[in-house]
Fold each of these.
Amino acid sequence: NAGVTQTPKFQVLKTGQSMTLQCAQDMNHNSMYWYRQDPGMGLRLIYYSASEGTTDKGEVPNGYNVSRLNKREFSLRLESAAPSQTSVYFCASSARDSRFNYGYTFGSGTRLTVV
Amino acid sequence: AQSVSQHNHHVILSEAASLELGCNYSYGGTVNLFWYVQYPGQHLQLLLKYFSGDPLVKGIKGFEAEFIKSKFSFNLRKPSVQWSDTAEYFCAVNAKGGKLIFGQGTELSVKP
């Protein structure tokens, strides 16, 4: 059982380049999330998808776009990378119903450096 | 707006010392509360969670947390830490729309 799989694990981009971070889960979870982690700032939500076919902005969406391709896959795209987007990116998924969020399962992260 | 506050940014303990990490949250609805641990170079893993019922929750590796509704707190405890507990610890609360809001994290260093 792979859980949440993120690719790539490491990436170096030049300012202005674009790239897509891939995320897939095999736990039949309905909700998926993208966070970025920066020292001293914890995890900040970029975008999330509460269910297949829906996406919503989180706390720090500027400079990013997402696609919920199907129930399993949720990708994050940087259209024109900036040094401020240097960070570690985590994808997560969760099972939730109208009352409870049962907690996240995280992927192993993508360490992105923009030079 | 929902928020989570972790008061200790960096805690340094010797092995066998007791641990308590503070977490306070603000959220007006039904709370689900979580503690996650991130070992160096790894992703976050769930330590324990609270949904309802007994406010004292036991998790993996000897950790426990107590939900005190009147204080909006969910502090993490361990009676005796080990060097292998060196990690960063994150408290989280559910928010509107099913998201989790995370605290800024507490880095725990345990000296052998």
Amino acid sequence: DSGVTQTPKHLITATGQRVTLRCSPRSGDLSVYWYQQSLDQGLQFLIQYYNGEERAKGNILERFSAQQFPDLHSELNLSSLELGDSALYFCASSVVPSAPGDLLGYTFGSGTRLTVV
Amino acid sequence: LAKTTQPISMDSYEGQEVNITCSHNNIATNDYITWYQQFPSQGPRFIIQGYKTKVTNEVASLFIPADRKSSTLSLPRVSLSDTAVYYCLVGDMGRDDKIIFGKGTRLHILP
């Protein structure tokens, strides 16, 4: 158990639908990152939140949105789903560094496998 | 985050030492080098991180030459369970906002 919890583990839905993926970061971590990984593809960075505020955006579609709540859990909302949105969605969290260059790592959850049919 | 280049894939045999090299010519002064391991259908797992010279933990060693323009992840006496994708990341992970993973190196361990 990495300490990062993602729910649900699996999700099957139809095209055009909307789903919400949930992530609880590791205790003490203020930053949450969302990644998408399609079959045999690398990890695509979607968006980062830090202490409730959006901090960085990657190649996130306009149909996708995210937020981080006061208790630091985060949700990724995917709407108007298309077949191509089928992928593994990972959440990662990290701790705030106390000084520049602090040795840090990102802790990933086990992912949510989304299948759009 | 500095751009990295690593082999697409590698094959090795059980019991061998495997070395995966990553090139990062544009590494900045404050950047650290971090390696992750990802098994199929699992999230990446932090393996090791270093700044210069050599770092060793219970899983791997990381060799970084003086110019820091490359690094080598060394996995001693690999087993079938080491078959995974290995990602090399370079950056100041306390500062960089967009953490970009490349394609990684797909390591296949043969019996």
Amino acid sequence: SAVISQKPSRDICQRGTSLTIQCQVDSQVTMMFWYRQQPGQSLTLIATANQGSEATYESGFVIDKFPISRPNLTFSTLTVSNMSPEDSSIYLCSVAGAGSSYEQYFGPGTRLTVT
Amino acid sequence: AQSVSQHNHHVILSEAASLELGCNYSYGGTVNLFWYVQYPGQHLQLLLKYFSGDPLVKGIKGFEAEFIKSKFSFNLRKPSVQWSDTAEYFCAVISDSWGKLQFGAGTQVVVTP
């Protein structure tokens, strides 16, 4: 399984600002995913990030609000732009397993609080 | 709409009791099924998975799950829980090609000594 780290682990931000979350994997992976877990709720997929192509966003999520970069096979960033208190969530990145596996491995998450 | 339903949001039980968590999904066709666990202060971990074959799958830490296709269910079980099983448990399903995990709402399990 892959080892995934995220930075920052948590942050408190003011309304209207932006935060970039980094996701680093210890091995090269094709597919990376970004999820949001709002307080008391389950995980919701924000987008799929493949190296060398534009991220694919799920319904309800747009690139202007959640721009994603995927510069190489071990790294990705998610930016939460123009934040509001409704963006307070845990943001997680995950990677798909190697080969034909459908398994996903998750990072520790970034706990974001917007005031 | 496609969905994953977990029957209980919060379960409290004593050590040595048996645990069963329900999970139902609404997808048709081929599915891949997972249970993930999140222990307090830790990240999400894969507990077990079903892709094909024997519908009774065994995972880590004594957990098992049974896939019943006719009932669109994938229930998680453990015969005798321990205090260390206190965690949040998520059922998840992939129904289409590669990678779009759909999670259930999660079940918070608290095991008392």
